[in-house]
Specification:
Layout: E1 2-10, E2 13-24, E3 29-33, H1 38-53, E4 61-67, H2 79-89, E5 100-101, E6 104-105, E7 111-112, H3 117-127, E8 131-132, H4 138-141, E9 149-150, H5 155-163, H6 194-206, E10 210-213, H7 220-226, H8 236-249, E11 261-264, H9 270-274, E12 275-276, E13 281-282, H10 284-287, E14 292-295, H11 303-307, H12 310-315, E15 317-322, E16 325-330, E17 334-339, H13 358-365, H14 370-374, E18 378-381, H15 387-390, H16 401-418, H17 432-437, H18 445-456, H19 460-477, H20 484-501
Parallel strand pairs: 3-4, 5-8, 8-9, 10-17, 10-18, 11-14, 14-17
Antiparallel strand pairs: 1-2, 2-4, 6-7, 12-13, 15-16
Helix pairs in contact: 1-2, 6-16, 6-19, 16-19, 18-20, 19-20
């Protein structure tokens, strides 16, 4: 009996799997045990055909055990370790091979791409063993520094290496494409909307959630898409997290320091938004980790889907529980939402009257619960531009995205330096203990807050988020303490919540 190491995925982590093979006499059969799913069971035929291409014909009763037996195994990740285990069992390998094996097998012995290469590379690095993976997985896995990667294109190449006949060269570590990012759209191309642009800058600097409210055609979606162009690039640790999520989901593409931007349609289900399904796959809130989750037409989403976002918006992680098990995914997102003020969209519009009745407006606004609105830091009105402003096609005013992005990067660096000992990346992630005693408030701030909080009817969470936004405003100005002017600006963006819920 021989044992070869493979992996299976549990969330964004690779879990080692021992592939044990035993061949006994009798009529030919292959049995796979150890909670395999349909794809793992079908590997019997793929592996058998791939071995036949090497001239290896299996005989007798073949038992393949995937240990630990109580851990569900899914996908085609275990094709290659099963083939290597069978080769060792029939005597084609001189000894038990060291390393972790990953990949799907074609019938002619080629190694095909699978999801989970980055978590597998992280596991191989931690265990101090090489990782054998398909060449198509190299671009993403090569970013994992310290991991030894070997990429055989076919099963004969892998067998030659394990026999010592033709050694595979280690894959060099890759570099992330540092091509300059061209924002689309650029803030300078968006006419007017000075207040909304300021809110985007604050949101990007502190990773604060925001809600854009305005009439149809006022530019809400355009502003939300411009947010990506002013976000700072991913750091090394953040990039590893994002690549692990993308690899787990099976998304292709070269590694990039550009932050994720995931627009979601209102018809998305709870599983699509939060994750789950038969394979406990990550949802959009996880795929947007360290980036932007954009929900346009915010009130049109299913109520249960929005309510499911409450915990991840607070904790930065989402726990997905199903009958097949429970996994925890990272979900540290900047939530950007856009919506109309009423069903017809023209409530408060100076040039077009609203045709909605009070009861229709009330029903529309009740689609967003108080707890969800309380988790949004910046409530931003987006007024519609006048015809005269719209026809000035050649007029490009204000700063471009590059200038704003430089200020955002400086503010983010200040935050990283300040909270490095606590492991906090930005102000929005601050735990409550740091909010109360770590923001360096001026003495005048407390009496000012006492006077104004009653008018806004804020919760404790709302006050905490106001103070975090005020800290971000101060960081953008380069001041070490938080003053009344910083808190007043944060309160001004919070007043939009009161106007939304007022009916």
């Amino acid at each position: 009996m021989t044992g070869v190491r493979g992996v299976t995925l549990r969330g964004v982590e690779a879990v080692p799997v021992e592939v044990e093979v035993e061949i006994t006499g009798g009529l030919f059969s292959i049995t796979v045990v150890g909670l395999p799913d349909a794809a793992v069971k079908e590997a019997r035929e793929r592996v058998r055909a791939a071995l036949r291409s090497l001239g290896v014909l299996l005989r007798g009763r073949v038992a393949v055990n995937l240990a630990p037996a109580d851990l569900p195994k899914e996908g085609a990740l275990l094709d290659v370790p099963m083939a290597v285990g069978l080769l060792a069992a029939v005597g084609s390998l001189p000894r038990r091979p060291e390393g972790i094996f990953l990949g799907e097998l074609a019938l002619d012995g080629r190694l095909r791409r699978v999801r989970g290469a980055v978590p597998a590379a992280l596991l191989a690095r931690d265990l101090g063993v090489p990782l054998f993976l398909p060449p198509e997985n190299v671009p993403e896995a090569a970013w994992v520094k310290g991991a030894t990667l070997l990429a055989p294109p076919t099963l004969p190449d892998l067998l030659g290496h394990l026999r010592g006949e033709s050694l595979l060269p280690p894959v060099p570590h890759g570099d992330v494409d540092e091509a300059p990012w061209v924002p689309d759209p650029d803030l300078r191309d968006i006419k007017g909307q000075t207040g909304a642009k300021r809110a985007l800058e604050i949101a990007a600097a502190g990773h604060h959630n925001l809600l854009l409210t305005g009439s149809p055609g006022s530019g809400k979606t355009l502003l939300a898409r411009a947010l990506r162009g002013i976000l700072p690039p991913l750091g090394d640790e953040e990039l590893t997290e994002v690549l692990a999520v993308r690899s787990t989901a099976g998304e292709e593409g070269p590694p990039s320091r550009l932050r994720p931007f995931r627009p979601v349609h209102p018809t998305a289900s709870v599983v699509a938004l939060c994750g789950g399904g038969s394979g406990l796959r990550p949802g959009e809130v996880t795929l947007a980790h360290r980036g932007v989750l954009f929900l346009d037409e915010f009130p049109e989403f299913h109520r249960d889907a929005l309510e499911a976002l409450r915990a991840p918006l607070e904790d930065g992680r989402i726990r997905v529980s199903r009958a097949t098990g429970t996994v925890s995914y990272p979900a540290r997102v900047l939530l950007a939402c856009a919506c109309n003020p009423c069903p017809c969209g023209y409530r408060g519009d100076p040039s077009r009257p609203c045709t909605c009745s009070p009861s229709e407006i009330h029903r529309y606004q009740r689609r967003l619960s108080g707890p969800i609105l309380d988790r949004i830091d910046l409530h931003v009105p987006v007024p519609r531009l006048s015809p005269a402003e719209l026809v000035q096609m050649e007029d490009r005013g204000g700063e471009d995205s590059a200038a704003v992005r430089r200020r955002v990067e400086q503010a983010r660096q200040v935050q990283r330096d300040r909270w490095a000992a606590q492991g906090v990346q930005c102000n929005a992630e601050l735990p409550e203990r740091l909010v109360r005693r770590g923001l360096n408030l001026d003495p005048e701030v407390r009496p000012f807050l006492t006077e104004t909080l009653g008018r806004l009817r804020l919760t404790g969470r709302g006050l905490s988020r106001i103070l975090k936004v005020a800290r971000t405003v101060a960081d953008l100005e380069g001041t070490s303490s938080v003053g009344v002017s910083h808190v007043a600006e944060a309160l001004a963006f919070r007043e939009g919540q009161s106007s939304w819920t007022a009916g």
